[in-house]
Specification:
The chain is built from 6 helices and 17 strands. It is of the alpha+beta class and 342 residues long.
Length: 342
């Protein structure tokens, strides 16, 4: 056999082997591939602090998180503050993610693991809008050990991978908003006026009472009377809008007062099938002095500073309540009475 023929047969054999590798494993031997236990995105740690914009897209859903000095803001919500811990968890997870198992290289099978058209596309950019990293995120689940497993595809690879550490990264903008809207110790509330009812409790009393109760009326259970204060003490929200035009008259108003002089006015509006709330805080030193005859529970050292901080956070915004909180804050006097059974 001539040397030329031997070489030809050798090349054909090599091509056959490479083809078999491609068919069996979806692996392109000419490209550098990661291996089990290696970092999913090699070299990212050196540039993670350069990330200035995070883009998350899935289908028609899109979320853009932009760094503003020491905070993160949501572009799709007029720059409202994002939960920075969620952002840190996401970036930290991407940096420390490791490859666990190689998966399919066949794009026709990507949809089975949440990739392809079903994928969530993650893009990290620097402050010049230059791309630092872009990859597709597929199905994700948390394990019993507290870790996560996620299918990903990166364009430097020729196959998908199951990797660890990736944090939850939904494309729904509302998920990223910083919450809660209010965080006030429930024990501080002394008075609530809601839906024609006045609920009050003395400093030493654990339960609210309905003022103006008629002899023929029976008051509802204590937990019902406490529900407005309990709700507003840790008030959450589902969505937020920046106010560009004055609102029409509120459908209802709920007022809260604390023993230590803080007053909250919650104005409720029915918009697009939901209930939205606008918040205003005030501080009255005379009320604090009046209540100071006893020990004020969880009172802040500076009540005026607290009211100013609340107003700074809510000024110019209106917040969508979840259905449960909306029902609680729309209660009327009859809701705080027992219904007689005939």
């Amino acid at each position: 056999m001539s040397e030329r023929l031997t070489n030809i047969l050798g090349y054909l054999t090599l091509f056959a082997i490479l083809g078999a590798v491609w068919v069996m494993f979806g692996e392109d031997p000419s490209r550098e591939q990661g291996a089990r236990g290696e970092r999913t995105f090699v070299g990212l740690e050196a540039r993670i602090n350069d990330v200035a914009t995070i883009e998350i897209q899935k289908g028609d859903l899109r979320t853009t998180i932009v760094k503003d000095k020491d905070v993160w803001r949501l572009k799709e919500r007029a720059g409202y503050l994002v939960d920075s811990e969620k952002v840190r968890a996401m970036l930290r997870g991407i940096v420390f993610s490791k490859r666990r198992e190689p998966k399919t290289a066949n794009p026709d099978r990507f949809s089975r693991i949440g990739l392809g058209a079903k994928a969530t596309k993650i893009t990290l950019r620097d402050d010049t809008d230059g791309e630092i990293l872009s990859f597709d995120m597929g199905r994700r689940k948390d394990t019993r050990s507290g870790k996560s497993l996620t299918y990903v595809w990166h364009d430097r690879d020729t196959r998908s991978w199951l990797v660890t550490e990736i944090a939850e990264t939904p494309a729904q903008a509302g998920w990223w908003l910083r919450r809660p809207l209010l965080d006030i110790d429930q024990s501080r509330f002394s008075d609530v006026t809601i839906g024609g009812a006045w609920l009050t409790r003395k400093l030493s009393a654990p339960e609210f009472r309905l003022q103006g109760k008629r002899a023929s009326e029976t008051v509802a259970a204590a937990y019902i009377l406490a529900s407005p204060a309990q709700t507003v003490s840790h008030l959450g929200f589902e969505d937020v809008r920046h106010l560009t035009n004055p609102l029409e008259k509120a459908s209802s108003v709920v007022d809260f007062t604390t023993y230590d002089g803080l007053s909250l006015k919650l104005s409720l509006y029915k918009i697009d099938g939901g209930v939205w709330v606008q918040v205003k805080a005030e501080f009255d030193m005379s009320l604090r002095n009046e209540g100071a005859s006893g020990t004020l529970p969880a009172a802040p050292a500076d009540g005026q500073a607290e009211a100013d901080a609340i107003n700074a956070a809510v000024r110019g915004w209106i917040f969508k309540l979840n259905e449960t909180d909306a029902r609680t804050l729309q209660q009327v006097r009859a809701d705080f009475l027992q219904t007689s059974v005939q």
